[in-house]
Design brief:
Layout (H helix, E strand, L loop, with lengths): L17 E2 L17 E9 L6 E8 L5 E8 L7 E2 L19 E9 L4 E10 L2 E9 L5 E8 L3 E6 L8 E7 L8 E6 L6 E7 L11 E4 L4 E3 L2 E12 L2 E11 L7 E4 L10 H4 L7 E8 L5 E8 L3 E8 H10 L7
Antiparallel strand pairs: 1-21, 2-3, 3-4, 4-5, 6-7, 7-8, 8-9, 10-11, 11-12, 12-13, 14-16, 15-16, 16-17, 17-18, 19-20, 20-21
């Protein structure tokens, strides 16, 4: 006897982030020098050439990471990868980088006509937030560790608020859940006015336990669109998925919407099997010339780089009907 549910079509969720058919677009075998894995790349469209630049986290066979730039005219194929590491840790001059540099985010700062790179500096005291600026991804100014351990998942806003720069980051307390915070600075070196921006939820939620920012905030007419990852503990380990939030344009502390559901999670083999299982981890996103198409670059299972695209308008429309109003 046939099952009663076989004739009923399975309901499908709206696919807001669509994987590129060429995925994974970059793997360790593409690198011009020996590496273990490439993943978690910051992304930006270069102001002069309009190429897409990915600043990938590259892990060597010691387990230590550095950063390396890859450039493409279309952001998908024909990558030109720096023949040597673009940013190597310097233990002597910058001891905060003792065990490597990880997970960069890139923000174009029009006021400076420079790029701001926030990344995780893995010091002997643990991982903290480092800030670097550059005009060309060849020469860099180093602001050292601006947020002490343990702190990760940081990105700057592209402009000031009330004369102060703003940065989103994710400190990890000794006990309890890890939330997304925002801090402000007059000079990029001294940071204060620390406030929790989004709380990690409790219980069985997809973003219980800890959350963190993905790519830098995206400015839209309706507010700052945030993609953030949520980590849920399962019987087989951590599970990383992606959700959305929208913050006020002029007051980025003010939350407008936060998604109740996740929109993107591990599905394909290259996202589920690798050095770290069940992980999709965006660090970079680029808006195309149409002002609506969003290209999101993400690490798959800490082993490769994938690309997914979305419509910003559709993300905002979906968020309005799937925002969170209950208790956690």
């Amino acid at each position: 006897m046939s099952s009663s549910h076989t004739s009923v079509p399975h309901p499908r969720y709206e696919e807001l982030l669509k994987r590129h058919p060429a995925n994974p677009i970059l793997v360790a075998a593409d690198w011009p020098y020996p590496v273990n894995s490439v993943f978690n790349a910051g992304a930006i469209r270069l102001a002069d050439t309009h190429e897409t630049l990915l600043l990938a986290r590259v892990e060597d066979r010691r387990g230590l990471s550095h950063l390396c730039a890859a450039r493409s005219p279309n952001g998908v194929t024909d990558w030109t990868i720096d023949s040597t590491p673009t940013l190597l840790p310097n233990r002597e001059e910058r001891p905060e980088e003792f065990w490597g540099l990880e997970d960069p985010r890139i923000t174009w700062i029009p006021e400076w006509k420079k790029y701001a790179i926030t990344c995780t500096a893995y010091s002997q005291g643990g991982p903290g937030v480092a800030l670097k600026t550059t005009e060309d991804f060849k020469q860099f100014e180093h602001y050292e560790m601006i947020m002490p351990p343990e702190d990760k998942d940081a990105a700057m806003f592209p402009r000031r608020f009330g004369g102060h720069w703003a940065m989103i980051h994710r400190p990890v307390p000794a006990a309890g859940h890890a939330h997304i915070w925002i801090s402000f600075s007059p000079d990029l070196r001294h940071w204060g006015s620390h406030k929790v921006l989004l709380h990690a939820r409790h219980g069985g939620w997809w973003d219980a336990r800890k959350i963190g920012l993905c790519n830098p905030p995206i400015e839209t007419e309706e507010g700052w669109l945030l993609l953030y990852h949520g980590v849920r503990m399962t019987a087989s380990g951590c599970l990383y998925r992606i959700g959305l939030a929208l913050m006020d344009l002029e007051n980025p502390i003010k939350l407008i919407y936060r998604s109740d559901e996740w929109i993107f999670g591990p599905q394909e083999t290259y996202e589920r099997i690798g050095d770290v299982q069940e992980v999709v981890f965006p660090c970079g996103a680029v808006v195309d010339d149409d002002g609506d198409t969003l290209r999101v670059y993400y690490g798959g299972a800490d082993s490769c780089i994938g690309l997914a695209t979305a419509s910003i308008k559709k993300l905002l429309t979906w968020l309005k009907s799937h925002h969170y109003e209950g208790v956690d």
